[in-house]
Specification:
Elements (H helix, E strand, L loop, with lengths): L1 E6 L20 E6 L4 H6 L3 H17 L3 E4 L8 H7 L4 E2 L6 H8 L5 E5 L7 H5 L9 E4 L4 H8 L8 H19 L3 E4 L8 H8 L3 E2 L1 H12 L5
Parallel strand pairs: 1-2, 1-3, 3-4, 5-6, 5-7, 7-8
Helix pairs in contact: 7-8
Length: 225
């Protein structure tokens, strides 16, 4: 029922990552965008990328999926264009949850966004998700070598899971403590595999791409009561 536009990456996809078949209790169809990796999605402003994403989304729709997700939160830059072209729900970034998170937690709530790269995240990404960038706190994974060298730079095709978890959970915990957060949104889909240990460390609601995929699934595949 769910199609996923995926970046072309070689590092492992543990359970909890969108492309791992054990992550969801329902089928997903992954469409890898060849030649578009983390570096390309973070730095490129080419209109050619937009065409590539739109065409891949249309293919998934023709293949019969009921909704389309994205494997990288930075795909928010294509959210409005692709949603306008398709006839099924499109939710390319976990950042799309921010308006709902704000409504649920209240106007004065301190909401944090843990992102792969705080330098690459722009007001345009937030505008495509109907949220002012200045309304949330942002922290990036810069300075975490296990995460950065494998997931962002692709220098290695494998990572040490214990080190990676320690970096991610440590960053989330420090972020939540420093900003006195009331809720945390994980922009990067590769953080989702560690959402449970993050929650245990910060004892707060944690929203990510998986919570959005589950929400969309229940909207397009209702069960009989």
């Amino acid at each position: 029922p769910i199609g996923i536009l995926c970046l072309d990456t070689l590092f492992p996809k543990p359970p909890g990552q969108l492309r791992n078949p054990l992550t969801f209790d329902f089928p997903v169809v992954c469409r890898v965008l060849r030649g578009v990796g983390a570096k390309e999605i973070l730095s490129s402003t080419s209109a050619q990328l937009e065409t590539l994403f739109v065409d891949a989304a249309r293919e998934l729709e023709r293949d019969g999926v009921k909704a389309i997700a994205g494997s990288c939160g930075f795909m928010a830059r294509f959210q409005n264009q692709i949603a306008a072209e398709l006839h099924i729900p499109v939710f390319l970034s976990s950042l799309l949850q921010l308006p709902l998170v704000r409504l649920m937690h209240g106007e004065k709530a301190e909401i944090g966004v843990l992102t792969a790269s705080s330098q690459a995240l722009t007001p345009a990404h937030f505008a495509n998700c109907a949220t002012p960038m200045e309304s949330v706190h942002i922290r990036g994974m810069e300075g975490n070598p296990e995460f950065w060298e494998t997931i962002i730079e692709g220098k290695r095709h494998d990572f040490d899971m214990e080190r990676l978890e320690a970096e991610i959970v440590g960053s989330a915990a420090a972020f939540a403590r420093e900003k006195a957060l009331d809720a945390l949104v994980l922009e990067c889909t590769d953080l989702s595999a560690f959402s449970a240990p993050i929650q245990r460390a910060i004892n707060l609601p944690v929203y990510d791409i998986n919570s959005l995929v589950e929400y969309a699934y229940y909207a397009v595949c209702r069960k009989d009561y």
